[in-house]
Write a structure and sequence with these properties.
5-stranded mixed sheet, alpha/beta, 12 helices, disordered C terminus
Length: 316
C-alpha cells in the first residue's frame, strides 16, 4: 500500500460513516454535504471492495468488515491527531493541553495525586485525565499506548515499549483487625488456606505468579477492579488481600484491618510510565516524562516492615 496515494480525509469520513451509520449525519459531523459524503462512501466501498454499510429495512447496519474497521478507524484518527499536534517546543507555564494516562486506582492514589498537584503548580493550563486500566491490557498495549500519553504499570506485565521509571514499592497483606486465625505474623499456611480478595486479573502480576512458584494457589472468594476497596472487603471477615505497601499506608485508618508482612521474600514492585515510541521526540510528552520521573522520585512511605511485627492495625 502506497500511503502517498491515499486521501487521509477518507479516514475521517470513514470514522463518521461507521459511527453514525447515516450518510447525512456523517456529512454534517465532518462538514460535508450529503452528495460529497455519498461520493466519499462510494470511494471507500471501491477501496475495500465491501459495502461497509448495508441497508436493513429503514436503516443501515455495518457489514462484518465495517465492524472490524469501526475500532481501527477510531484508533487511526486518534493516532493521526496526536501525530499532527506534536510540538518541537513546549512551555508548561502557558500551554493548554490534556494528557490521558491509563492507570489503576492504586497508581492514581500513590503517584497520580502528587503528579496532579505538581502539574497544578507548574502548568496551570495542563489537564490530566486518568482512565482505568482495561483487563485486556496485555493484548491491547500497542493500541492503548499509541492513542494515550502512557500507561502507569509495574514491570512484569507488558514489555517491548519504552518506560520512564517512577518508584519502587513492595507487597503486603491485609487481614481483619479481629481475625480469629491470624496472630502477630502471617504464615504461609495462612496464605494457602484462608479465602482471598483479589484485584482484577491478578495472575498477570509477578507477585501472584510468585505464589504459584511457591506452590500456593489463592482461594479467591471475591474479585474487584479496585485496589482501594480491598480493606473494606477484608474487614470483619476471614479474608486476606495482597496490596501495595504505599497504598496500604495511605489507606491506614479507613477500615479495621492490619498490614501484615508477607511470610516469604516477595518480589519488589517497580512502577513505571510506559509510552509509545511515537511520542519520543514530542516536546510536550518529553516534559510529561521528565515531570513524572521527578514526581516518582519523591514518592515515599515509611517502612511498613518496621511496624508489622507489632501487628499495628491499618484501622488505627
Amino acid at each position: 500500500m502506497n500511503l502517498a496515494s491515499l486521501d487521509l480525509n477518507l479516514v475521517v469520513a470513514l470514522r463518521a460513516l461507521l459511527e453514525e451509520r447515516n450518510v447525512t449525519r456523517a456529512g454534517r459531523r465532518v462538514g460535508l454535504s450529503q452528495p460529497a459524503m455519498s461520493a466519499a462512501l462510494a470511494r471507500l466501498r471501491r477501496h475495500f471492495d465491501d459495502d461497509l454499510l448495508s441497508r436493513v429495512g429503514g436503516h443501515y447496519e455495518l457489514t462484518a468488515l465495517g465492524q472490524v474497521l469501526l475500532d481501527r478507524t477510531s484508533t487511526a484518527c486518534d493516532l493521526l491527531e496526536r501525530l499532527f499536534t506534536s510540538q518541537a517546543d513546549f512551555d508548561p507555564a502557558v500551554e493548554e493541553r490534556e494528557f490521558t494516562i491509563v492507570s489503576s486506582d492504586y497508581a492514581v492514589a500513590v503517584f497520580g495525586a502528587e503528579l496532579a498537584r505538581t502539574v497544578h503548580r507548574e502548568a496551570p493550563g495542563i489537564r490530566l485525565r486518568f482512565v482505568r486500566t482495561p483487563t485486556g491490557i496485555v493484548e491491547q498495549a500497542g493500541t492503548l499506548l499509541s492513542t494515550t500519553e502512557g500507561v502507569l504499570m509495574p514491570h512484569g506485565i507488558i514489555s517491548g515499549f519504552p518506560a520512564t521509571e517512577l518508584y519502587r514499592d513492595q507487597w503486603v497483606f491485609l487481614v481483619a483487625d479481629d481475625h480469629p486465625d491470624v496472630g502477630e505474623r502471617l504464615t504461609r499456611d495462612d496464605v494457602a488456606r484462608l479465602p482471598w480478595v483479589t484485584y482484577q486479573r491478578t495472575y498477570d502480576a509477578p507477585a501472584v505468579r510468585q505464589l504459584g512458584m511457591l506452590g500456593i494457589e489463592p482461594r479467591v472468594e471475591v474479585s474487584v477492579d479496585s485496589f482501594t476497596v480491598l480493606p473494606f472487603l477484608v474487614a470483619g471477615t476471614r479474608r486476606i488481600a495482597l496490596v501495595q505497601a504505599l497504598l496500604a499506608e495511605r489507606l491506614r485508618g479507613v477500615a479495621p484491618v492490619r498490614i501484615m508482612e508477607a511470610p516469604y521474600e516477595s518480589v519488589p514492585l517497580q512502577e513505571a510510565l510506559w509510552w509509545h515510541p511515537v511520542h519520543t521526540h514530542d516536546a510536550a510528552h518529553m516534559w510529561l516524562r521528565e515531570t513524572a520521573a521527578r514526581v516518582g522520585a519523591s514518592v515515599t512511605g515509611h517502612d511498613v516492615r518496621a511496624t508489622q511485627g507489632a501487628g499495628h492495625p491499618a484501622g488505627g
